[in-house]
Amino acid sequence: xxxxxxxxxxxxxxxxxxxxxxxxxxxxxxxxxxxxxxxxxxxxxxxxxxxxxxxxxxxxxxxxxxxxxxxxxxxxxxxxxxxxxxxxxxxxxxxxxxxxxxxxxxxxxxxxxxxxxxxxxxxxxxxxxxxxxxxxxxxxxxxxxxxxxxxxxx
Length: 154
Known about the structure:
Strand content: 35-45%
Helix content: 10-25%
Structural class: alpha+beta
Distance between the termini: 24 Å
Radius of gyration: 15 Å
Strand order of the largest sheet: 1-6-8-7-3-4-2-5
């Protein structure tokens, strides 16, 4: 895949998030978090970006059992309410792949990034991989996601 790959040291990130099990219903989770973010004016801040954290691997866990959190990265102060919780993404060294892909190409992008990691002698740390969206794919002329995929490494 055509990607720009770097090793970056990132600082700890703060986010509001909703944890969900399984791939079914993910659209609803995104919609809930967007509605909540709009009600708090979080999207008006420059640091606000949507993303997703993966607690399980699709290579090991069935799609209906995979645990994920849909997140809204923000430095805007907020209180946890209902299913929307404060989530911290650990800082440290990460492989970061910058992609411009369609919804159907996410699996291929993640797989290619993990292959790159192995081929270059890096080892994933205990922390969770995540993705941060740099655009709203619905506003892209080809409905593509401009996304950064992060693999934490030792």
